[in-house]
Automatic annotation (TrEMBL):
One of its GO terms (molecular function) is protein-glutamate O-methyltransferase activity. This is protein-glutamate O-methyltransferase. Residues 1-255 form the CheR-type methyltransferase domain. It is an enzyme of class 2 (transferase). InterPro entries: Bact_Chemotaxis_MeTrfase, CheR_C, CheR_MeTrfase, CheR_N, CheR_N_sf, SAM-dependent_MTases_sf. It catalyses: L-glutamyl-[protein] + S-adenosyl-L-methionine = [protein]-L-glutamate 5-O-methyl ester + S-adenosyl-L-homocysteine. Keywords: Methyltransferase, S-adenosyl-L-methionine, Transferase. It comes from Marinobacter persicus. SUPFAM superfamilies: Chemotaxis receptor methyltransferase CheR, N-terminal domain, S-adenosyl-L-methionine-dependent methyltransferases. Its EC number is 2.1.1.80.
Amino acid sequence: MRRLPDMDAAQFQQWQKLLEHRTGITLSEERRSFLETNLSIRMREIGFSSYQDYYEHIVSGPEAIREWSVLVDRLTVQETRFFRDPDAFRLVADYVLTRPRERFRKGPLEAWSVGCSTGEEPYTLAITLNECMSQLGLQPLFGVTGSDISQPALIKAQKGRFSARSLQGMDEDLRARYFRPAERNTVDIVDSLRERVCFARLNVLNLDRVPMQGVNIIFCQNLLIYFRRWRRREIVRKLAGYLAPGGLLVLGQGELTDWQHPSLQRVPSEHVLAWTKRQSNDE
């Protein structure tokens, strides 16, 4: 198939507006080649040779909904790995290990990974929580929810099968406890851990529709960088509303600056951007 013509400025702006309108994600001029490459690959796969024709197919074609789901997956899912930010997970562990003992008599801990991609982050949260419960001599009473806009990514996450490469740098004892060898240089999460993690499709523009409350840990890293500053603040403000009193909110370093919330208190840390929700009495 012959090479597609370069995307002109008007076409790029058209796709920029569509992506931001539907997902909130903004693409700068520097990411134009990223958009063009991913669009052209998909267009070749299904037989389109014009950016405009493909745009109209996405917006109003008979397979528009299904095709949009495929394209969003191509544009948003990034390669990740377990314990991608070790400092952040150490902070989560310290948070859990220093909770008053009576907190664990109130019910299971609930954690939420926002923008979970293919599942490495929520499963890392589950490993961290399980290790903490074991260290405290408690039953593993916790649940983790992973949410993402990409349905294909969520399907992969639910299966709990990962490339061995995604475990790079992980402690060998943790590998042995939580993973089993599978086919073709892949590994499976052990069932006892996989059963504690559930997944749901969510566009963060629709946070008002989330049927959750009283979440103890909200983990949202490497997502906000794709949004405008005002929208980042709006997203985090809404996430704060889902935290339980005393709950922990963890973001990516540099994703939000000069921001305050009357209900949140900044966690003193040089390497992790995090807050806890204020409470009148200790949990």
